[in-house]
Amino acid sequence: MASVFEHDATPTWSGFIYQGHVAVYLAVSKICELLNGGSDREEISETYQLEIENWEDVALMKQDSESKQYISIHQVKNINKRSIKDYDKPIIQLMLERNFLNKQGLGMPKAYMHISEEVTQDENDIKKIMQDWKESVLGYYDELDKLACKVIESKDEDAFLESVSKVIEEEPIKLNRKEYKDKLGEIRKNIKEKCTADELKKEIEGLLEYLDEELAVPGIDGEIELYAYDDAGTYHCDTKRLFGWIVETVKEYKILVNSREHLTEEQYEFIANKLLQYIREAIANRHWKKRQNKEYQSHISFQDIMKILDDSVSDYEIPANIMALRRRYADALSQYCRMICRNACEGNEDSRCKLLNEIYGRVDLDDEEFLKMCYAYNPNCREKIGDRDCLNTLVNKDGLQDSVFEVYKNISEQFFIKKDDTRVMVRDQRNNAFLTALAHGKRRVRVAVEDIVGGISNNPELVSPIFEADELITVHLDSDDETIWDEDYTVISEKYLSQQNIDFGEDNRNSICNPKKPKFVTAEDVISRLAKDH
């Protein structure tokens, strides 16, 4: 059923990644709760569902052949705000939506707000503020109703217009939906054009009907809670802590189903990462299809989630490392969006941020392409993906945020050289610049060179492409001294040429160019130059 509440905002990476963590935690927690209560595994698997961005960011529901009932609805906000007053719009929307679902015979679900930052108010203050919001919405409806019923004499029309204007400008709902904003806009237009009171009252009646039928305002009860993750009243939880909670719920599930597997901590984390990757892909698929006006599925069966929980974890080491890398990359992207961009694109359907495009955000790559991307950004990494130590090097948050993401955000698409693989080349005036996440200090150019030589020695097939570039874009390094490569150039040439022969065949030996000696340039300088050329 179509709903005015259906999620339609442009997703930010900050919200997108956090939403996936919350969704996984809620689903596995609910499965454990149902098992603890004696529910049958088959019934849980077949009748319970996780819903993503339909009625709310996340919802839990039960559906069988006879009925559909919402158990809980959840607003999810991963923003750098520390006052409950900064969450007025999503909490008021939760109030309205909860009552509307009940009016439609879809249950009276519990309604929760999930936040990543600790708010400054205590529990009593939060309840008082939420109660005030509820009263303000009901007061808004009552004031409009009084204005619609008021008898106006001609001499009082200006005062009437002023009264309507005040109510409309102070409206508390702030719903970002076209139909609602259009109705408010029409009333503002009539006030500006000084229409008659009778004409204005007709517009108010139309707005009241919308508030009653589409938003179910008169029945809101304000029963909204900040979601508590433990009995101590921990109301905030970032992605790092949420991942820990997910791992604990996976352990609880294994105990409840009497699993005979003796799993290590890393194996529990592997299962948690599989769940997160599955949910992220499901949410991303919904977004991409919605943008392309294609049909999409908004619910995920508990059956799919339980299958991942029950899957074998044999031969898990390399897949576990890849999934851990993918989670760390997603966390870095989320953090950049929340702390650097400050979610500037949230709710903006006209946003043109390239990072929101899967081509640049890179969350949709398969595992092989993802690894190519990691080593392309970090050619200084000497580790193999099967080595657990690679997690400390391959995804460097500082390098990603201050070089890679900054270039994507600030450089016009016309300067990107189109490639079919995961190498990212930028046309820096007359040079081909290869985008990296290298974050060595300003005086550590030779250290960077030594690390890159170690990288090509251990992973030639993944590192050799950087020697096709004139420049390497980094965070701090800035050097046009090509001689810094001379001491190691023989090693580089051997690895580079041997890899090219593998890629193109021995017959092409004579046509293969020698590796270049790329200069180091900072992302800041490249952005500055190209911004002038745009």
- Secondary-structure element order, N to C: HHEEEHEHHHHEHHEHHHHHEEEHHEHEH
Count of domains: 3
| Regions with little confidence, pLDDT below 50 for 5+ residues | none
The secondary structure category is alpha/beta
Number of strands: 11
Describe the main β-sheet briefly: 6 strands, mixed
- Averaging pLDDT over every residue, what do you get? 87
Number of helices: 18
Percent of residues in β-strands: 5-15%
Describe the structure.
The longest helix has 27 residues, at 123-149. Helix 3 (88-103) links the parallel strand 3 and strand 4 (110-115). The chain has 3 domains: 13-78 and 238-310, no CATH class; 133-219; 366-533, no CATH class. The protein has 534 residues and is α/β, with parallel strands linked by helices. The protein is built from 18 helices and 11 strands. It has helices spanning 13-36, 41-47, 88-103, 123-149, 157-169, 178-192, 197-213, 239-256, 265-291, 302-310, 317-340, 358-361, 367-377, 397-410, 445-458, 460-463, 489-504, 523-533, and strands at 48-52, 58-63, 68-77, 110-115, 224-226, 299-301, 416-417, 425-428, 431-435, 471-474, 519-522. The chain has a 6-stranded mixed beta sheet. The mean pLDDT is 87. Helix 11 (317-340) crosses helix 14.
